[in-house]
Amino acid sequence: MAGDTAVLEADAVSLRFGGVRALSDVSFAVQRGEIFSIIGPNGAGKTSMVNCVSGRYRPTEGRILFEGQDVTPLRPNRRAALGIGRTFQNLALFGHMSVLDNIMVGRHNLLGAGFLRGMVYWIGGAQKEELNHRREVEEIIDFLEIQHVRKATAGTLSYGLRKRVELARAIALKPRLILLDEPMAGMNLEEKEDMARFIVDLNEEWGMSVLMIEHDMGVVMDISHRIMVLDFGRKIAEGVPDAVLADPDVRRAYLGEADEVVHEDGEPATT
Ligand SMILES: Nc1ncnc2c1ncn2[C@@H]1O[C@H](COP(=O)(O)OP(=O)(O)OP(=O)(O)O)[C@@H](O)[C@H]1O
């Protein structure tokens, strides 16, 4: 288990769906300032693990600690308010709203929640708070280089830009840990390069810790500080990219997958 610099700790997490064991006794820690990736074959339990961290799923056994605090019983919005942000595998934007409004919603949703808070908001300095929101949102728009589409309707943008707006919304509250679920999925090479650069900048310039699931091995190996490998819900390796790549268990897990793929001519696939 990690020392006091861990931003996130998963302590012996198991998750069952009826008879399916999605996660078995998985422990890991993301250190402050780290880009930590989870990889593994399809169905290995990656999304289940991230959902346990975000609060969407409650582990059957084990605990999730954020900055030393046990957040296992907390609902997703409470964890978000504490400083855990997330993006989703599939886009989750309001297509009919502008880019600017989509990002503003990311802030209001969490900060403006509740009747009492709403009253305070209107009686005491709504304008000041609104200005504050605007300033922070503009900073994010600049950072992610989406100034040129800030007034555009989100649904009309290219896929790569929509993913960038989704990231903007997720970082609107400046979370200290961001969970990225396949941030490169469905992107072309140029969009992937842009996204990789933004993730590194978020990490280096804004000091955000990152927990990422990503299938693109090139990106994972390039930008991750450390990687955890899951297979059939179990952790089979953890370490720096080169060590994970060279790990015999990891090679077996991935090669095992490829062995099952046979081309129509009967030749085994090489990838
Ligand atoms: N809500 C659910 N109900 C029942 N079983 C589930 C549920 N979510 C996940 N599982 C099962 O748990 C296991 C792990 O799934 P999970 O989606 O976490 O894997 P993954 O590594 O993210 O896969 P992929 O790379 O395909 O997204 C799988 O066997 C899956 O079918």
From TrEMBL:
The name this protein carries in UniProt is: ABC transporter ATP-binding protein
Which InterPro entries does the UniProt entry name for this protein?
AAA+_ATPase, ABC_AA/LPS_Transport, ABC_transporter-like_ATP-bd, BCA_ABC_TP_C, P-loop_NTPase
Task: Please give the start and end residues of each transmembrane region.
Answer: none
Q: What UniProt keywords apply to this chain's record, in alphabetical order?
A: ATP-binding, Nucleotide-binding, Transport
An annotated Gene Ontology molecular function: ATP hydrolysis activity
Extract the CDD domains matched here. Answer: ABC_Mj1267_LivG_branched
Q: Which GO terms describe its cellular component?
A: plasma membrane
Ranges of residues in domain ABC transporter: 8-257
